[in-house]
Amino acid sequence: MKMLAKLGCRLLLQRGAQLISPRAAAESPIQLLGCVRTLKKTTWFEEHLTEDNQTYLRNLMAEEYRKQTASKLNPLRDEPWPRQDWTEGSRRVGLVAVKLGMAPIWTKTGERHVVTLLQVQDCHVIKCLPKEEFDGHTAALVVGGKNVSPFHRSEEQMEVFRNAGVPPKQKLTIFKVSDNAIIKPGTPLYAAHFRPGQYVDVTAKSIGKGFQGVMKRWGFKGQPASHGQTKTHRRPGASGPGGDPAKVFKGKKMPGRMGNTYITAHGLKVWRVNTKYNVLYVHGTVPGHRNCVLKVRDTVLPTRRSTLLNPPFPTYFTEEEVDLDEDLYDDNLFVHTEPSVTLT
Amino acid sequence: MAVCTTGLGTFATSLRFCRKLQHQNERLFSTSMCRPAADSEPPKFVPPSKPVIVDKTQTVTSLRKFLSPEFVPPRQRTVPFKFFLERKDMIRRRKMLNIPEFYVGSILAVTMADPNASGKTNRFVGICIQRGGNGLGATFVLRNIINNQGVEICYEMYNPRIQKIEVLKLEKRLDDNLMYLRDALPEYSTVDPEMKPVPFSPTGEVPVNSLKVKMLPKPWSKHWERPKFNIQGISFDLCMTPNQMAGAQKRAQPWREYDMLREYDTTELKEQILKEVQEDMSK
């Protein structure tokens, strides 16, 4: 497969043309423009299959996913690891969520805030890395979120998921965890792991802006629009001190690719948790575009640690707390089933 | 004419004849009908039914098939599930506060909780000039002229501080956006704050007020004569020369109506959402 890639585009395109040419006789040249094939370096699962087999495989995959998730629904029943209690300094797992969008909320005093909706879709613990394996100081848990098709994943990746007994995931993240919070691989994680009133940090890849100039990327002021400026309105200007160093220092802010990097938003309050659909309502804005996959964990900020007293530890199990309401609200949040706010 | 009178005459005489017969028959039958049988009990006294007083000034739930525009999701990359969650919250709020059916051009009165007002509530009456936003952040702008000063307030429909929304006059105008009232004569934006609600029928068509508004002299805040705004509700012949109108038409983009990528057909979506909303509201 690597050989094919090395041979270059030309051979691949020729190969592609050979594949398309038997069909070209039937299609008109105008229609051919529509079916431009993207570069595929390895054989993809549909290449040598008939259409019936393709649909059969897809249905089979969906069924397998359903069986796998169903078999993991009761983690407390199939030999879970011994659970330990929450102590002051312990760190627990986080979740992998999908950014749905934003909505306004109002407090009981009538103030308006904005929240981001994050949905926890098929979040499972994939692997446990004990202290010795990971870095010698802390244990770690690999968590995956959002199911994805197995046809475009390599065998090595699929092996990891098969060991956990879980469908392949789009995003795998590592959460550094204290020793008493390790969870057995294959346990599903739900949104009720976080409770309203606590604070979270959300990490995601920011929206990619492409190659951007210095004004947008670093916030430089640029130059005036008129008064004699010759062809210099958005340029960086000077690039350093001058003759003494006689060089430009490393890390000088210059134009370049902006965005598509991991950014963390700290100290975001959880206003509401929907346990039925696994949705978190998190204060303010969060990096990333709509439908992007994010990493959510308990805050690192020391001033907000007091809100995290007695959380579900190591995680929330559905079999334990059966009588949770469909919607958990923060105390200050105005719920729409209440009558209108009257200020006294 | 002579024919008509003779016709009428014959008709009248025949009527009188019929009536005479009727009277005779009544006199013949009246006594027999009143006494069906002497030995049975006298008929029980059934009091006449109370007249049902229908208070038409109160808000009557509309029987028209109306879906508020903020329920229709815009064309975006957002998953429909997010709109579904927002709709559930909107319906919960609508069950607590009745948000009536209204259009741009209707006259509304909104009572809102205000920490700085005496009695802590604030009532504002105005004509709705714009409806914007989607989902829980839907807004409407009310305009009125108070003490010779134009006032516009943008209210959020699902804000919990709003205590009451009354429709004083339900009507539509020729446009969806009445922002040009800012440049029109003040008499068109004045609404009496003590106005009595005008009764309207819950069924049938919403009345369309095809009023053509007279404008103040130019310059206006926007070039309302340009085809981009597509305003039907201004009487341009009173304020602009045909030359100026022709000049404005130069900025027309006639190809836009054939642009298929701009089409967003919401009929199916609307039907489905209307059904869902009506089901949830009746629960």
UniProtKB/TrEMBL annotation, chain A:
<dbReference type="GO" id="GO:0005762">
    <property type="term" value="C:mitochondrial large ribosomal subunit"/>
</dbReference>
<feature type="region of interest" description="Disordered">
    <location>
        <begin position="222"/>
        <end position="251"/>
    </location>
</feature>
<dbReference type="InterPro" id="IPR009000">
    <property type="entry name" value="Transl_B-barrel_sf"/>
</dbReference>
<dbReference type="InterPro" id="IPR000597">
    <property type="entry name" value="Ribosomal_uL3"/>
</dbReference>
<protein>
    <recommendedName>
        <fullName>Large ribosomal subunit protein uL3m</fullName>
    </recommendedName>
</protein>
<dbReference type="InterPro" id="IPR019927">
    <property type="entry name" value="Ribosomal_uL3_bac/org-type"/>
</dbReference>
<dbReference type="Pfam" id="PF00297">
    <property type="entry name" value="Ribosomal_L3"/>
</dbReference>
<dbReference type="GO" id="GO:0003735">
    <property type="term" value="F:structural constituent of ribosome"/>
</dbReference>
<dbReference type="GO" id="GO:0006412">
    <property type="term" value="P:translation"/>
</dbReference>
<keyword id="KW-0496">Mitochondrion</keyword>
<keyword id="KW-0689">Ribosomal protein</keyword>
<keyword id="KW-0809">Transit peptide</keyword>
<comment type="similarity">
    <text>Belongs to the universal ribosomal protein uL3 family.</text>
</comment>
<dbReference type="InterPro" id="IPR019926">
    <property type="entry name" value="Ribosomal_uL3_CS"/>
</dbReference>
<keyword id="KW-0687">Ribonucleoprotein</keyword>
<dbReference type="GO" id="GO:0005743">
    <property type="term" value="C:mitochondrial inner membrane"/>
</dbReference>
Automatic annotation (TrEMBL), chain B:
<comment type="similarity">
    <text>Belongs to the bacterial ribosomal protein bL19 family.</text>
</comment>
<dbReference type="InterPro" id="IPR008991">
    <property type="entry name" value="Translation_prot_SH3-like_sf"/>
</dbReference>
<keyword id="KW-0809">Transit peptide</keyword>
<keyword id="KW-0496">Mitochondrion</keyword>
<keyword id="KW-0689">Ribosomal protein</keyword>
<dbReference type="GO" id="GO:0003735">
    <property type="term" value="F:structural constituent of ribosome"/>
</dbReference>
<dbReference type="InterPro" id="IPR001857">
    <property type="entry name" value="Ribosomal_bL19"/>
</dbReference>
<dbReference type="GO" id="GO:0005762">
    <property type="term" value="C:mitochondrial large ribosomal subunit"/>
</dbReference>
<protein>
    <recommendedName>
        <fullName>Large ribosomal subunit protein bL19m</fullName>
    </recommendedName>
</protein>
<dbReference type="Pfam" id="PF01245">
    <property type="entry name" value="Ribosomal_L19"/>
</dbReference>
<dbReference type="GO" id="GO:0006412">
    <property type="term" value="P:translation"/>
</dbReference>
<dbReference type="InterPro" id="IPR038657">
    <property type="entry name" value="Ribosomal_bL19_sf"/>
</dbReference>
<keyword id="KW-0687">Ribonucleoprotein</keyword>
